[in-house]
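Appendix C: a fully annotated inverse folding record. The material below is reproduced so that readers can follow the format used throughout the book. The structure is listed first as C-alpha cells, followed by the designed sequence.
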C-alpha cells in the first residue's frame, strides 16, 4: 500500500489532552434530609421537639450516603437546626451539605476537583470532554475552565475529533 493511500488517525497522533469530568464523579447514594416534617404547624421549629427528633432518629440509615440538608417549606429555620443535623449525620454520611440534591452534586464534584494537580496541564492543549454517562453540572465545567486557564496553552470543548475552541494563551 502506498503511503499516500494510508489512513492517518490525526486525533491519536495529536498533542491534545482530553480532560474528562466524568472521571471525577463519586459513586454513592444521594439523599435529602428535609426538616419540613419537624415544623410545628408547618411554620416554626420548636427546639425541644427538634432536639428530641435528633436524639431518636436512626441516623445510621444514612451510612455511606451523600446527604443534602434542606427545608422545603417556606419557613424561617434557625441555623443551629441545620448544624445539629450535620452533627448527627457526621459519623455516618460520606458527606453532608446544606441545600438541594443539585447543590450536593456540585459540592461532590468540587471536592473531587480540589484534588487535581492542575499544573500537569502546563502549556498543554486540553479538550474538556463534552459527552459523559453521568450528568456533570454546568458549574463544574466553569470551575474546571477557571482552573485550566491558569496553565493550558489552549482550551477546547467537545471530543478530540470535533472541538469548540474556547481559549488560547496569548
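Designed amino acids, in order:
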Amino acid at each position: 500500500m502506498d503511503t499516500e493511500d494510508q489512513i492517518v488517525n490525526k486525533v491519536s497522533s495529536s498533542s491534545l489532552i482530553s480532560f474528562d469530568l466524568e472521571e471525577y464523579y463519586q459513586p454513592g447514594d444521594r439523599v435529602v434530609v428535609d426538616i419540613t416534617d419537624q415544623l410545628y404547624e408547618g411554620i416554626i421549629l420548636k427546639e425541644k421537639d427538634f432536639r428530641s427528633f435528633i436524639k431518636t432518629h436512626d441516623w445510621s440509615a444514612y451510612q455511606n450516603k451523600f446527604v443534602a440538608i434542606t427545608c422545603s417549606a417556606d419557613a424561617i429555620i434557625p441555623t443551629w437546626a441545620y448544624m445539629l443535623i450535620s452533627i448527627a449525620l457526621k459519623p455516618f454520611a460520606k458527606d453532608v451539605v446544606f441545600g438541594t440534591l443539585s447543590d450536593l452534586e456540585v459540592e461532590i464534584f468540587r471536592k473531587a476537583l480540589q484534588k487535581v494537580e492542575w499544573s500537569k496541564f502546563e502549556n498543554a492543549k486540553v479538550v474538556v470532554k463534552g459527552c459523559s454517562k453521568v450528568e456533570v453540572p454546568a458549574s463544574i465545567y466553569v470551575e474546571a475552565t477557571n482552573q485550566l486557564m491558569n496553565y493550558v496553552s489552549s482550551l477546547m470543548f467537545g471530543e478530540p475529533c470535533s472541538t469548540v475552541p474556547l481559549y488560547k494563551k496569548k
